[in-house]
Amino acid sequence: METPAQSSPPQPTPPATAGHSQGGELIRIFDTTLRDGEQSPGASMNLKEKLEIARALEQLGVDIIEAGFPITSQGDFDAVTAISSEITGATIAGLARCTEKDVRRAGEAVKHAKKGRIHVFCATSKIHREFKLKKAKDEIIRMTTENVRLAREYVDDVEFSPEDASRTEHDYLAEVVHAAIEAGATTINCPDTVGFITPAEYRIMFEYLIAHVPGAKNVIFSTHCHNDLGLAVANSLAGVQGGARQVECTVNGIGERAGNASLEEIVMAIRTRHDQYPYATRIQTKKLVPTSRLVSSLSGLHVQRNKAIVGENAFAHESGIHQDGMLKNKSTYEIMLPTDVGWARSENVLGKHSGRHAFKTRLEELGLRLNDDVLNKSFEQFKTLCDKKKEIYDEDLEAIVEDQFENVEQLFKLKSLQVVASTNGTPTATVTLVDSGGAEITDAATGDGPIDAMFAVIQRITQISATLVNYQVRSVTGGKEAQGEAVVELMHSDRKVRGRGVSTDILEASAKAYLAAINRIRTLTKKTVSQGTPI
């Protein structure tokens, strides 16, 4: 291959409104989520779940759905039969080994399909011939010919796969492919069964077959790549560049061992880098995320956060530098629109790496416009909270700002808190407060429970006696790192006073709320009561 001259990096083609609207030769998407994907350990699905996914794949725009391996179980046979009977917008394929019973079982399963396909495979690599099949080269060619012909008795659309094609000698691979074409195969799939090949080698393999096999121009060549070396998507795209016009893949890249080539990554690579891959697919890309979530939910295989396209972090930015760039121009750090794949929008995730610009912008989006002094104090409190939890939610920001507008003198501040609770012992709370003069005061008390003990010791330190009339706790945000909000109402001298506290520790939030109410009482009575006199 020629080495391109040095030049500035090519710019991606602006996204189109649909994957196929960019033009170019059509690449058929063959989805094997329900067959190869279901072979992932722990991913077994029942008939109802398979039908639900098949409907979603049809809506997504998949060209061929490999619905199962009918000979393997009655459940697989029933699933292929049911999907064949219902789905009309996509070709439905059933897998079969190169044996008569496999092919006939697959033929029975897809016979009601509006567009049915039998996918026949036979191992061809030297290591598979010697250790798995224990058959000679000519015997494998005979098996291929007989079973492809048998499949043609059931359907006009027959796909043949020389299993482990990527480790098969090119000259022998060409012989087997030629035999399959002569027997009536309409699609030739050349799988990288064990994820061994590299992109350059895979492209060369397709170029060799198309150039040397008689009749190659009359069939569709297909890729099927596994991800053992993390090269499944790169290999699939290289295969397309080598002449393949069908790509076999799965939603979320699920599949045997390390998985298969990821449908969403292949489709969006073609769409985003149309300058390098001038092709088209029928995939409705806005349905990629919803389909991904459905497959994840029904298969039980969760998508990693940093998964391309459909991962939770795919369009999330926390770094202050990245957030600043995104706020100025989204293309600085995003090469595609999140809405084009089914996300609502990009997300500037506020965390400890976020800067003041992102913090201020998010507050303004929430309708909170602050002067510089309040903004600076809020930002400091935000950074403190970031050390306690990884992700900050809008409710956290609102709570931070609300604290800044509390017009109450902080006569006492909470420094530390230790609570001991036991079903067989006496609940005890030890609290250290800092007064307005900077002095630390520590005391302890017992109570009917940890909250009661904590409130009692705060009363002793502040020398304020009040009656608790209301105490509420709720989760401000979701997840295990959620902030808890505590609200207390105290009755003092016929006046009801409210206090509020927020923390990831609900006991700390309760102490802050109680102390906020005490500070309010002290602020209201400070002018008439001498310091240190019990109230």
User: What is the name of the CATH architecture of the largest domain?
Assistant: Alpha-Beta Barrel
Query: Based on DSSP secondary structure assignment, what is the total number of beta strands?
Result: 18
CATH class of the largest domain: Alpha Beta
Strand content: 15-25%
Distance between the termini: 89 Å
The number of domains: 3
Count of helices?
16
Q: Any idea what the radius of gyration is?
A: 33 Å
| Envelope shape | elongated
Q: Which consecutive residue ranges, at least 5 long each, have pLDDT under 50?
A: 1-21, 527-535
Structural class: alpha/beta
Question: Would you give the CATH topology of the largest domain?
Answer: TIM Barrel
Strand order of the largest sheet: 2-3-4-5-6-7-8-9
What characterizes the major β-sheet?
Answer: 8 strands, parallel, barrel
- How would you state the average pLDDT, rounded? 85
CATH superfamily of the largest domain: Aldolase class I
- Roughly how much helix do the residues carry, as a percent range? 25-40%
